Amino acid sequence: MTKIIGITGGIASGKSTITAYLRQKGYQVIDADQVVHDLQTKGGKLYQALVNWLGTAVLNETGELNRPKLSQLIFSSSDNLAKSSQLQNTIIRQELENRRNQLAKTEEIFFMDIPLLIEQDYMDWFDEIWLIAVSPEIQIKRLKQRNGYSQEEAQQRLASQMSLQAKKAYANQVIDNNKTVEDMKMQVDSQLRRLQNE
Question: Which protein family is it in (predicted)?
């Protein structure tokens, strides 16, 4: 019986560190952000849908999506955000489902990293949901370092998301990522041992 584990968390909570570690341990991980990236490349399904909606203004000189411009347009109004979500979610969900069904044929345990797992209602896809939890202060600090955001921009991004506190109600396991990477890996290892023994 295949076990499918959903991984989620807020922005800058450390999901990519954990998924990289899981891959290192030999597990398959479907990364929703990577899937979106693939779909947004020139000629991809999402690329077409976004250009049809927003026009060629969202493209750069080589005809690829201009991500900063796209992000700016989408986050500029709640209407755009809602429309973008609806448009993208349908296409993304189909693609994620295809990839999930493929892996379920060959893997005993695999993971799907979906940042908006709860908000987009993917809960029933999984045997377990792991939440990567980190304090808002650390999220803001990482966003400023990693993305070069100002304090205000970082707070805005955080405010536009469901709080980690609210997400805890949906999680089967909470991985605390407020300390060191080593500490986080130890928590993941103990969860993996538990999964293999069940």
Answer: Belongs to the CoaE family.
In this structure, are 42 and 89 located in the same domain? yes
Same domain, 114 and 102: no
The upper half-sphere exposure of residue 154, i.e. CA atoms within 13 Å in the direction of its Cβ, equals: 18
Same domain, 45 and 69: yes
Q: Are 6 and 117 in contact (CB under 8 A)?
A: yes
Complete edge-to-edge strand list for the sheet that includes strand 3-9: 28-31, 109-113, 3-9, 128-133, 173-176
Q: Are residues 101 and 115 in the same domain?
A: no
Number of structural domains the chain divides into: 2
Is 12 annotated in some ligand binding site? yes
Torsion angle, alpha carbons of 59, 62, 64, 69, to 10: -40
Last residue of a domain, one of 60, 89, 106: 106
Q: Which domain holds residue 92?
A: 33-106
Name the DSSP class of 59. Answer: B
- Residue 13 is assigned to a ligand binding site: yes
Task: Confirm whether residue 154 is marked as ligand binding.
Answer: no
Output the pTM of the full model.
0.83
Whether 10 has a binding-site annotation, put simply, is no
Q: Kindly report, residue by residue over 98-151, the tens digit of the pLDDT.
A: 999 999 999 999 999 998 899 889 999 999 999 999 988 888 898 888 888 888
Is 83 annotated in some ligand binding site?
no
**pLDDT tens for each residue of 8-31:** 998 888 888 999 999 999 999 999
